Amino acid sequence: MKGIGASPGIAIGRAVIHWKEQIDILREFVEDPEQELERFRTALEFAGEQIRESYSRVLETVGPGEAAIFRSHGMMLKDPDFVGQIERMILDGSVNAEWAVKQVADSLIQIFESMGNDYMKARSDDVKDISDRVIKLLLQVGGIDLSNLREPSIIVARELTPSDISQMDRKMTLGMASETGGKTSHTAILARTLEIPAVMGVKELLDEVENGDLMIIDGEAGQVYVNPDGETVERYRERLDRYECFKKSLSEVRGLKTVTLDGVEIELEANVASPKDLDDVFKNDGEGVGLYRTEFLYFDSSLLPPEDTQFEQYRDVVEAMKGRPVVIRTLDIGGDKKVDYLSIPEEQNPFLGYRAIRLCLDRQEIFKVQLRAILRASAYGRVRILFPMISSLEELRSAKNILEETKEDLRSQNVPFDESVQSGIMVEVPSAAILSDHFARETDFFSIGTNDLIQYAVAVDRGNEKLSHLYSQYHPAVLRLIKTVLDNGTAAGIRVGMCGESAGDPKLIPILLGMGLTEFSMNPSSILRARWILRNLRKSDLEEAASTALSLATAEEVEEYCSGLLQSLNLCR
User: Fold this and answer.
1) Which residues face 334 on adjacent strands?
2) pLDDT of residue 462
3) Do 323 and 381 form a contact (C-beta atoms < 8 A)?
4) pLDDT tens digit string along 173-204?
């Protein structure tokens, strides 16, 4: 059965069905609306406790970026508009609580989905997750306990939510498959972070699967096999054995330099969101921090974090890296990342709206506080400042002027900082890529952010399941934009790195190297695999392959070519 490969890897095991039947919510009239209101509020209280537990568990086991999902869920449970509508429906209509929750939630979901953008799609997913949680508490029903599986299993469901993922016992979860969802959903992001093979969007999956059925999940190909024949099982067991052997062999490159066979030195760095993520960076032998996402400090606060709080967190990261580079991205709030206390108005298309550098240039009092904190931290190590969402030279010049004003303020107060600290831009907007020759003359470095660059280049909402097949890092136009940036940066003699998910894609790494990329920043768990691959490549041998990839006409052709290249290099494990 074919679906969407949401998280790579292979899983072979018995199926455990989490949710099969949809819950039918019928309207019932109640004799005592006040008592029904109390029943709803009790369920709301229990839901809040569950969400706080999920937040703490994911914060501890995964990280603050992923845990932020549950923080937003908790805030929605306290939203006076959402809760108020439900309570008024119960009281005014004398109806049962679960029906009121369903009606209000469905209305909001319909509104959000009709707006057709990433942020609103994420909001509709959040509303569904929260309302389902409250309804299940009201009905006192639930699927299997994912935290207490008896044996390693493959989880199957009509839909899997971030709440479900937070409950999973990772040691007992071999893989997962669902009828709905896509590779850009919160659930898929959590699965990839936890390295759980996952296939989503498998139509009529539950019609074919029963508890205990033997299943194979191929998260790379998006393939699900139910009760496969012996030959298929044997083929996949061999692949799984090779992959597990390969993972163990990665320890051999720990502590080694990332140098290609023809002597090209590569920097392999990590994307992190807080000091807690550094354990994973050290465990996977990262050579620096290529992207420090500062917005998660703002997500974890109920008000704007003061300068000293920011400084202490940045300093902790810089000191812990002991002279290795730390690229700190300035505040990237907006789009699908919002905090209530900033009072950012709702927008029809927030990904094209008031976000990132646009917000910072407008709210300079916020921007300068963060810049002061970053500059102060630069006195403790190698810091580079990264401006996100730059689309014009005017924005870059304004940001640099504010940075210089902030430096002058610190000088006047005799506050130490690194006078030679570099500043650069995220290249994630096509206009910045196309004009990268001009930008290269006015900035110290580039960091290519492929996640947004893909979205903007091909005009695809990456949260829209109906369009997920069009959102591809293999799109020829995206590769050409990347090549333009690399060429212009190299010609100007400035550093060019990549911090989007493409940087950790094994199939793209050889092509990116052939195009001239020598600085890769990725999820820490991908670093050792990338080092193993790069140490077995010759850059000089891949320049022609990169030219071939750039000449292809479709994303499908590019991906097929990249897969074949990886296999021909004997690097496909």
Assistant:
1) 337
2) 64
3) yes
4) 999 999 988 776 778 878 887 889 999 999 98
Nearest to 273 by CA among 313, 321, 323: 313
Q: Annotated active-site positions, please?
A: 186, 499
* Local structure of 215: helix, strand or coil: strand
Return all residues near 366 (Cβ < 8 A) that are at least 6 apart: 304, 331, 359, 360
Handedness of CA 472, 478, 482, 485 (dihedral sign): negative
Q: How far apart are CA 268 and CA 256, in angstroms?
A: 11
Question: Three-class SS string for 56-96?
Answer: HHHHHHCCHHHHHHHHHHHHHHCCHHHHHHHHHHHHHHCEC
Window from 115-129, 288-302, 391-405, 426-440 with minimum mean pLDDT: 115-129
Mapped onto helix, strand or coil, the DSSP state of residue 217 is: strand
Q: For the chain, how many residues are written?
A: 573
Confidence of residue 337 (pLDDT cuts 50, 70, 90): low
122 confidence band (pLDDT: 50, 70, 90) = low
Contact 424, 445 (CB under 8 A): yes
Q: 11 has which bridge partners? A: 217
Kindly report the average pLDDT of the chain as a whole number. Answer: 89
519-522 and 289-293 as β-strands: parallel, antiparallel, unpaired?
unpaired
- pLDDT exceeds cutoff 60 at 336: no
Cβ atoms of 310 and 369 closer than 8 Å = yes
Residue type, 288: G
Banded model confidence at residue 338, pLDDT cuts 50, 70, 90? low
φ/ψ of 115, rounded to 5, equals -80, -20
